[in-house]
Amino acid sequence: MTGSVAHLAARRRRIESIRRGERTPGEHIVVVGMDIAGSWQRSREAVSETCSAAPIEDTVSDWTQTPYGQAVTSCVDELETVARESGMVAAVSDAEGCLLWTGCSRSMRNRAERVHFVPGGRWDERSVGTNALALALRYRRPASVFSAEHFIPAVQDWVCYAAPVRDATSGEVMGVVDLSTTWNKHSPLALHAVERFAQRVSQALQSLSHMPVLRLRTLGTPQAVLQGRVVPLSPRQLEILCLLALHPEGLDLERMHAALYGDRPVGVATLKTEVSQLRERLGGAIGSRPYRLLVNWQADFRDLEQALDAGRIENALGIYRGAFLPRTESPLLRAWRDCLESRLSEAIFRVDNPDVLLNHLGQAPEAVDALQRLSELLPSDHPGRTLLARTFGEV
User: Fold this and answer.
1) How many other β-carbons are positioned within 10 Å of the β-carbon of residue 129?
2) What's an example GO BP annotation here (predicted)?
């Protein structure tokens, strides 16, 4: 064995020993990281380890006629060339983890077919457990999964790399680009390659898409802007838009009603009327069965969430302009707001730059957590304490 392959073999043995239960739970995170360890836990609840192949759709809709499909089609020739020349299999999925296209080297073709890594194969986490494509979808960032880090044994001889394709306008994840090969050919360069291809598809999508853009502002003063024009909406209609932004896959009437009203005695006819009026005001931008947004969209609260996910605390604080829908009575939106505020507060206590906190207090003077963190950072004789005391009270 070469030194590189010997190192990979040793890494594989460490992971396999974890899977056999020969290491403590704390060692799981040290060896494979939080993302993999968390995915294993979720996978155990959803997938049998005896699963030998991904479930496969009998028919796949004509995705090539969509803007995303056209963007993918314009980029796959080069991706297929890379896969063939590198002994890999390449794939592009939709936002649900269903493979739309694959291109394969001769050495990987039979392997890919055996496990249904082919168009129509479903590679989301609930279908096959831990894999790079599923992690890229879940965490909305590039991911790699090596050998026994995969949940099902059928692909534990693989190493996979995946990167999400984002709509450059809305930030929505449209799908994933994936490159996979055998574990002994692992190379960090492959992750850079899928990131580059995902960016190319995103750029192609941006040039092809002529759909109107909906922008939601919910942190501070709520507002909806469609194609640069403020759309007058009721608080309930803004809540509906936020729920659809949180569920890009769509919501049926029953789930929408529960998320919006909870146990309140409000009939479904009222909700249907609200959605109908909202659809009219947005020029037909809401689909039905299920309810979903049909336009590119961007929402400040999702931007804030993504900044926190990526650890970009300064960016997150720059996005924040006030509490998310402070008057909402929707049980789902209230729970989401509480979670977001809690995450933001935890992030604030990791800030080491007083200027960042002072800028945040300029936008959110009521941010007690920022004041507390400043009191920890500023020396007792710092002149800033006097200014803070005058402006915000005792620090």
Assistant:
1) 24
2) phosphorelay signal transduction system
